[in-house]
Amino acid sequence: MNTKDSNHLPLIIKKLHKSYKIDSDTVDVLEDINLTVRPGEFISIVGASGCGKSTLLRLIIGLEKNYQGQILHGDKPIKGPSSDRGMVFQQARLFPWLTVEKNIEFGIVGKLSEVEKTKIIEEHIELVGLKGFEKAYPHQLSGGMQQRVSIARALVNRPDVLLLDEPFGALDALTRINMQQEILRIWQAEKTTMILVTHDIDEAIYLGDRVLVISNRPGKIKKNIPVELSRPRERSDYDFVRIRKEIYREFFTQEEKNLEYFI
Ligand SMILES: Nc1ncnc2c1ncn2[C@@H]1O[C@H](COP(=O)(O)OP(=O)(O)OP(=O)(O)O)[C@@H](O)[C@H]1O
Ligand SMILES: [Mg+2]
């Protein structure tokens, strides 16, 4: 696979503030976010609905340009979308009229010969385990398979950073666990920096080198919880359960903490 000079660069966020204007009101969405993501690190982000998680990913990918503070990829400020950063959304967002291979081809940025294109598409179909489905249309695939196509499309330019915004939210529990394995396999093979937003706390712990808990609006990094567990991880391990409790505690108010018994 082709590698890029920009591979293995840290992502640095300094004093990031983001607000939106709705009518004449200013809504502060993110406040004083400071974060350094090591090259190849896997970060999970959790937080209540509306706390600014998707906004943070959109800022990192370069879709939102109006903000205060700094977002650097290596030493370069992020000024817009780039093939160095890929994004996977909750819904696969495939073109229904294009086959698997054409959907993946659509993600390729830059001029490549037909031979190079074919090779890259083949490699990515293999990477996400969809060999044999090259000519299938999205409606002929399961939800999990469609999501694999969108992961392949996001990886096709060998991005340095892959942003995942609740990518498995629409999948059933078993497919979800399979996809988590798949993402880990890709991460270990490609050494891509991963930033995953999820509502599933077990998923956050299972995958992440650390879990960031974002507070309610305005979103701030409330807690940075390292997950120092070797892989493959076991969801019923004592330390896994301990971290799960630690994260749940961040979500609960004092009264709700009495619910701890149920976790
Ligand atoms: N384009 C926009 N214009 C105005 N406000 C916006 C815009 N996009 C997001 N917001 C506001 O920013 C806040 C954070 O939204 P965001 O989508 O980042 O939340 P989230 O943490 O991803 O939530 P969820 O878990 O439900 O996906 C919300 O209050 C939302 O109304
Ligand atoms: Mg969101």
From TrEMBL:
<keyword id="KW-0547">Nucleotide-binding</keyword>
<keyword id="KW-0378">Hydrolase</keyword>
<keyword id="KW-0813">Transport</keyword>
<dbReference type="GO" id="GO:0005524">
    <property type="term" value="F:ATP binding"/>
</dbReference>
<protein>
    <submittedName>
        <fullName>Aliphatic sulfonates import ATP-binding protein SsuB</fullName>
        <ecNumber>3.6.3.-</ecNumber>
    </submittedName>
</protein>
<dbReference type="InterPro" id="IPR017871">
    <property type="entry name" value="ABC_transporter-like_CS"/>
</dbReference>
<dbReference type="Pfam" id="PF00005">
    <property type="entry name" value="ABC_tran"/>
</dbReference>
<dbReference type="InterPro" id="IPR050166">
    <property type="entry name" value="ABC_transporter_ATP-bind"/>
</dbReference>
<dbReference type="InterPro" id="IPR003439">
    <property type="entry name" value="ABC_transporter-like_ATP-bd"/>
</dbReference>
<dbReference type="InterPro" id="IPR003593">
    <property type="entry name" value="AAA+_ATPase"/>
</dbReference>
<dbReference type="InterPro" id="IPR027417">
    <property type="entry name" value="P-loop_NTPase"/>
</dbReference>
<feature type="domain" description="ABC transporter">
    <location>
        <begin position="11"/>
        <end position="241"/>
    </location>
</feature>
<dbReference type="GO" id="GO:0016887">
    <property type="term" value="F:ATP hydrolysis activity"/>
</dbReference>
<keyword id="KW-0067">ATP-binding</keyword>
